Design the sequence.
């Protein structure tokens, strides 16, 4: 067993000297705390006849990166910037980091934190530079009561967290972690109590959450990429009949849907760079294909883009290879699946559900059908070829079914929000428009070809925005 932090909760006064020493040694900016002291309070006052008795309790828990036996941060990093030293210390190589923040999503303890001044992630390294000189970590040296230390063993009565399931870890540590944190705790006498527990200093210790602006590139990237994949699937079904019946050179007609797909995919990839803190390292994103779903997502994005390019070139030559189209469609599916797996993280309970996979696939189909429908209507009216009666009813009923499915997948616990209600209204509007279109309502094909895509685009954008706000929306009961 390599060195682990040890903490005696029964004697901690909560002075935060360890927290201050860590911040001072590593010159951390405001909002970045590698070590945090949690102040847990609980209990209440109870009336007993004419008297009042209390069950109030409080204790402190000092915690930094736990240098876990199975660090999730190292497993998900797309640039393979994390390494585990022979002594078990998990080290982040900031020269490789792209500042994407994915490791912070994956860590159950919020250890990796983004430094906006340097543009990359940062974390506790157990002051290995001190250890190599025979000195203790800064936080350990600063503790006035000597309740914080590091060692290979703990005295009797300590909880060695790497040896016990997460369900038995003291509050507020998460119960879903499987990383086996290297942290040994001598518990406080009240750590086993469960009544009315809460964090008294939540604002101080809560990991910094990305702002809405920081999430905007991810919203656009996922939506534009899914539109490109769904558009390719829809194009291969919607247009071949029309193009085969055209009596003149249909190069321009073939260009329109291919151009929309290419622009969507290219714009999505370009806008994703805005999310990176250190863009110069972006070329490293394929360095961890063995473990990182984010690396795999980028790989499938590139392969799908290549497949679309080859397919477009074949279309210009009036030649289509069914095998190549099938391969590109399969690459698109792999891209959507990888994208969903990126968000299926135990540390993100609001995302770690099968709903994420289904919602991403539904969004892909909805955006694909909606984006291609106006082009189909335009090309059919331009050429005068009657393909709409055989295509539009299927498109309308598909949008109707997919919209109803989205409505069924919505999280019932968050339906009270104003934005959520607005999204429900948009989904209902899409359902009604699709139903009217399917029944041949007299408003006209052209109007439906514009209104339905517009409503779907706004609804999907709002839904994806809410999705990013829901990462920590589901709280696990302890």
Sequence:
């Amino acid at each position: 067993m390599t060195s682990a932090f040890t903490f005696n909760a029964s004697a901690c006064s909560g002075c935060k000297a360890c927290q201050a020493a860590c911040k001072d040694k590593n010159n951390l900016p405001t909002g970045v705390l590698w070590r945090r002291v949690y102040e847990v309070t609980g209990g209440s006052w109870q009336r007993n006849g004419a008297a009042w008795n209390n069950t109030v309790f409080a204790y402190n828990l000092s915690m930094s990166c736990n240098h876990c036996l199975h660090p999730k941060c190292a497993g998900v990093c797309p640039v393979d910037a994390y390494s585990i030293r022979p002594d078990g210390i998990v080290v982040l190589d900031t020269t490789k980091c792209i500042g994407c923040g994915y490791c912070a999503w994956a860590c159950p303890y919020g250890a990796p934190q983004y430094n906006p001044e340097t543009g990359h992630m940062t974390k506790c390294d157990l002051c290995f530079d001190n250890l190599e000189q025979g000195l203790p970590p800064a936080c350990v040296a600063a503790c006035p009561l000597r309740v914080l230390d590091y060692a290979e063993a703990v005295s009797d009565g300590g909880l060695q967290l790497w040896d016990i399931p997460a369900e038995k870890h003291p509050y507020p540590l998460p119960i879903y972690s499987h990383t086996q944190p290297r942290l040994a705790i001598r518990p406080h006498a009240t750590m086993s109590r469960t009544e009315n527990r809460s964090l008294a200093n939540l604002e101080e210790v809560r990991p910094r959450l990305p702002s809405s602006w920081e999430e905007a590139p991810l919203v656009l990237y996922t939506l534009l990429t899914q539109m490109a994949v769904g558009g390719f699937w829809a194009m291969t079904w919607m247009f071949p009949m029309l193009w085969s019946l055209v009596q003149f050179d249909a190069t321009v007609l073939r260009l329109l849907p291919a151009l929309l797909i290419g622009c969507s995919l290219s714009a999505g990839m370009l806008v994703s760079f805005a999310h990176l803190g250190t863009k110069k390292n972006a070329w490293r994103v394929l360095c961890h294909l063995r473990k990182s779903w984010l690396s795999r997502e980028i790989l499938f994005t590139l392969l799908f883009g290549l497949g679309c390019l080859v397919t477009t070139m074949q279309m210009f030559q009036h030649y289509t290879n069914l095998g190549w189209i099938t391969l590109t469609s399969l690459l698109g599916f792999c891209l959507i699946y990888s994208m969903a797996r990126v968000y299926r993280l135990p540390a993100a309970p609001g995302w770690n559900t099968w709903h994420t996979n289904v919602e991403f696939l539904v969004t892909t189909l909805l955006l694909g059908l909606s984006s291609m429908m106006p082009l189909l209507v335009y090309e059919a009216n331009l050429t005068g070829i009657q393909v709409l009666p055989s295509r539009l009813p299927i498109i309308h009923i598909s949008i109707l079914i997919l919209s109803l499915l989205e409505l069924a997948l919505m999280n019932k616990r968050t339906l009270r929000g104003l934005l959520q209600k607005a999204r429900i209204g948009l989904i209902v509007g899409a359902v009604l428009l699709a139903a009217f279109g399917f029944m041949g309502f007299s408003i006209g094909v052209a109007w439906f070809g514009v209104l339905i895509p517009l409503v779907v685009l706004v609804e999907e954008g709002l839904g994806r925005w809410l999705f990013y706000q829901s990462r920590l929306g589901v709280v696990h009961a302890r």
About this structure: The radius of gyration is 27 Å. The chain is about 50% helix and 10% strand. The first strand starts at residue 4 and ends at 8. Residues 474-478 have pLDDT under 50 and may be disordered.
